Structures are given as C-alpha cells and as structure tokens.
Design the sequence.
C-alpha cells in the first residue's frame, strides 16, 4: 500500500497532478515511468511538454553526467561560460541560421513565465505603450503579467488582484468561422472611438495547449502577423509548450511562414527536464539597459549542456521532424476512427479530434467525462491529462521519441477508457 501521508500533511493544497495520479513515482526511462512498487505507467504527459526527448534520454544523460563529473560550472548567473557559448553556437548554427531567423537571445530566468514576463516588459519598453492583446482560452503562465494575458478564469482568480493592461480577442474558430478573421480587432484598431489604446503587442500560441489543443490555421496566423505589421504592433509567439519540435518543425510557427518579433521558449529547450527559458527578440528591439531584466537562475549551465546535445543530436537533419509528423498522423487517423465510432445515425458526434503534430486533443461532451476517461486510462497504466476551459479535452503529449508500439498501446488504452465512459 502506498503511504501518501507525508505529502498530504506537509504539502500545500495547491498541488494538482498528484491528485490525478496518486502513486509515488521512483524511476523513469524513455516513455515509461515506474512507481516505487515497480508498477509501469506509459507516459502521454511528458512533463507537460518539458520532456520531448523522453525521460533520462541516454544521449542527454551521458552528457549531463560527464558535465557534473568534470566539475564544470553549474551556477553562473549571466557570466560567460563554455557551456553558454556552446549552447549559443549550436542554437545559432543549427536552429536560427537555417531558418533565416535573426534573434538576440535573452536568458530571463528558469521557467516559461519568466520568458513571457520578459517579452511583455520589453514590448512595453520598446513601444511606450501598456496594452497587450491576448486571445480567448490562452495560457501564458502563473505570474501576474503572464496571468493578465491568460484566459482561464480559475487561474486568473488565483491572482488576488485585478489583472490589467490586457484585452482578450477571439482566437481562431472561436465563432465557428461565422465572421471574417479579426473583424472585431480590426474595427477596434481603426475606430478612434473604440476605447482600445494601440497595443504594444499581441501574444499568441499557435496551438493552445492548456486551452484545449486549439490549433490556429496557418492562414489565420499569417493574417494576424499582417495585422500586427500594418498597425505597428509587436507580435509575440509563445512557443513554450509547442516549440522544440512538438508540432513537427522546431518552432510551431514555421508552418505558417511567419517571423514573430519576439518568441518565448522553455520546457523542452533544456532537453532533459532541467529548467531553462529563452526570450528571442529582434536585434533592433534589444534595448535593455545592463541588468534591467535579471534573475539569479538565468544561467543554469547543465541545462545549456543538455540543450546543446539535443540540438546537435536531433536537429541537424529532419529525421525527428518527419517522425513527429508521421506519429501525429497516426494519432489523427486512430482518433478520427474513434470519433466515427461514437457518432450516431443523425451524424451527431460525441467526440472531436484536434491538434497538430504530437500535440493532440480528444474533446468529450463534458469535463466530467474527460476526467473519467483519464482516470480509466490511469487505472490501465497510462498517464494523460485533460485541458480546455471545462477540462473537457484529453490532451495527448507524449515524448517525440516514443516508439510506434508504445504509441499504439497508449491509443488502445484510450479506446478502452472511452468505450467504458461513453459506451462501446
């Protein structure tokens, strides 16, 4: 029997994932986690997108162990280190230059919210404006600035103070395409009586992860980039969860052919689960004064080492990208069949399949049903979370390195859990 008393007695009530998966995990390899009793769980969660290359990836683990064994620098703030240099060289040579992207790299702190806060702060400094446009069902982090551009009311309610200087707009397909794209925003920007101050920036996820795996169309993203350019508004793409290959290309905006002014990265940029975040900015926007944005843990050198190793191992050719797209198509095909299976004679479906690459969502009629499916999956040995405004979407985000056999096994478990909840 698992003893959870130490966690229940000493940890804050704020903990969440441990409530869905009430076991004590001990080991993890690739796409499998093991609890302290040796029970095996297939992982379709991957650290909420922080483990795109799997748990204890042998290539990255070897680099990390050698780095520590050689007494290399671990903590360095923003001092120059060989590890920092090697990362910047690899990132520039393998990621930025082949994509014709010209960015300066800001190391804002260890997490995604740090990257978003830096992006918002710099956009306001550059433009001299306060307002930022965000989108319905967006999620950008849990600090006050990031929460102000987040849509979820539960998360916003945790702030305890008014969240200001942000204006939400409808995300792609919010109105089921009954209206032209950006009809409302264009009108507000062009009307001197609208009450909307010209925004400093627009911040957007190309695929909304926490919002329910809502994938924006490439043409919608291109339209947004064009709107920002015409109105002299900076475009920030939050690629914290969907970057580093999650949708296929290294950046999730590559498919749309746009070039954001600012990009935020975290989660899998450190590659091994170690904390790391980047804010990428156009060189002409890099107007920081020395030390104007800083943090004690903005230079965790072991993460630089594993990040460099991942870039060089997985991104010097398109093998991982092609594999991710193929596996994503495999999930899409399976879930389209599942949707058809749960569609009645009148064509009314109980399920909706969504997503891109290996960010996939299966929407159920209610959050309670999605929770029941996730719970049934856990009982069968699969870790999968839910997302969406009511928690109504099963959110599939396995490691990109998951095997075909593991992927199929997990999808079989989901099929069985869905059948149990909705009926065969």
Sequence:
């Amino acid at each position: 029997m698992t003893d959870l008393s130490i966690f229940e007695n000493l940890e804050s009530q704020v903990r969440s994932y441990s409530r869905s998966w009430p076991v004590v995990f001990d080991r993890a390899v690739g796409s499998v986690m093991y609890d302290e009793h040796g029970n095996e769980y297939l992982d379709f969660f991957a650290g909420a997108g922080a483990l795109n290359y799997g748990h204890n990836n042998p290539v990255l683990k070897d680099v990390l162990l050698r780095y520590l064994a050689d007494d290399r620098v671990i903590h360095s703030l923003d001092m120059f280190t060989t590890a920092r240099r090697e990362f910047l060289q690899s990132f520039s040579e393998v990621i930025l230059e082949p994509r014709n992207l010209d960015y300066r790299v800001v190391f804002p702190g260890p997490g995604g919210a740090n990257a978003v806060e830096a992006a918002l702060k710099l956009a306001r400094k550059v433009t001299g404006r306060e307002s930022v446009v965000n989108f319905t069902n967006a999620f950008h982090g849990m600090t006050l600035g990031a929460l102000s551009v987040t849509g979820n009311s539960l998360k916003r309610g945790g702030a305890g103070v008014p969240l200001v200087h942000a204006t939400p707009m409808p995300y792609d397909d919010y109105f089921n395409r009954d209206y032209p794209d950006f009809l409302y925003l264009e009108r507000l920007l062009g009307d001197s009586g609208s009450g909307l101050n010209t925004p400093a920036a627009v911040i957007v996820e190309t695929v909304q992860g926490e919002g329910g795996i809502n994938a924006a169309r490439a043409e919608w993203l291109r339209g947004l980039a064009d709107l920002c350019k015409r109105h002299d508004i900076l475009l920030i793409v939050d690629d914290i969860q969907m970057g580093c290959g999650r949708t296929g290309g290294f950046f999730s905006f590559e498919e749309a052919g746009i070039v954001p002014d600012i990009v935020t990265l975290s989660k899998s940029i450190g590659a091994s689960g170690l904390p790391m975040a980047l804010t990428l900015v156009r060189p002409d926007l890099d107007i920081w004064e020395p030390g104007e944005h800083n943090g004690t843990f903005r230079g965790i050198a072991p993460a630089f080492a594993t990040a460099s190793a991942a870039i060089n191992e997985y991104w010097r050719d398109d093998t991982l990208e092609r594999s991710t797209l193929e596996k994503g198509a495999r999930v899409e095909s399976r879930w389209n069949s599942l949707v058809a299976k749960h569609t009645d004679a009148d064509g009314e479906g109980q399920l909706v399949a969504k997503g891109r690459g290996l960010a996939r969502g299966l929407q159920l009629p209610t959050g309670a049903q999605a929770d029941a499916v996730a719970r049934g999956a856990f009982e069968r040995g699969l870790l999968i979370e839910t997302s969406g405004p009511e928690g109504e979407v099963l959110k599939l985000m396995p490691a990109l390195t998951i095997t075909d056999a593991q992927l199929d096994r997990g999808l079989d478990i989901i099929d069985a859990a869905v059948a149990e909840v909705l009926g065969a």
In short: The CA atoms of residues 219 and 256 lie 7 Å apart. The chain has 14 helices and 17 strands.
